[in-house]
């Protein structure tokens, strides 16, 4: 890619909006995932009895198993949320940037 083209893209206000929106959104989702994950891990480390309790009196499955699965499902949900926004808002901005560069 030519240096002039790179500079033209970087100077585009839509590109700056895209970078800020995408980065901010990714950081928020990352923080949400880290909070959920480390809460789970720290609970295992400092209060293992809380997650080691059986689901019911006659169950061999502990409450930690479905909570661990919920952490994994939460990660999939966050991925879906990011993908949905990337395929709509971010792609629209990206196409707008491409079209404005082609016109110049």
TrEMBL record:
CC per GO annotation: plasma membrane
Matching InterPro entries: DUF485, Inner_membrane_assoc
Pfam families assigned to the protein according to its UniProt record, in alphabetical order: DUF485 (PF04341)
Superkingdom classification of source: Bacteria
Record has Transmembrane helix as a keyword: yes
Parts of the chain that traverse the membrane: 29-51, 63-82
Keyword Transmembrane helix: yes
Keywords: Membrane, Transmembrane, Transmembrane helix
Protein name, UniProt field: DUF485 domain-containing protein
Organism classification: Bacteria, Pseudomonadati, Campylobacterota, Epsilonproteobacteria, Campylobacterales
């Amino acid at each position: 890619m030519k240096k002039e083209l790179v500079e033209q893209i970087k100077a585009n206000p839509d590109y700056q909006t895209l970078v800020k929106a995408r980065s901010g959104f990714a950081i928020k989702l990352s923080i949400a995932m880290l909070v959920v994950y480390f809460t789970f891990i720290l609970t295992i480390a400092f209060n293992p009895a809380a997650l080691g309790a059986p689901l019911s009196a006659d169950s061999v499955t502990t409450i930690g198993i479905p909570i661990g699965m919920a952490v994994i499902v939460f990660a999939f949900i966050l991925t879906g949320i990011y993908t949905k926004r990337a395929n709509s808002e971010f792609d629209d901005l990206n196409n707008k940037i491409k079209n404005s560069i082609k016109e110049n």
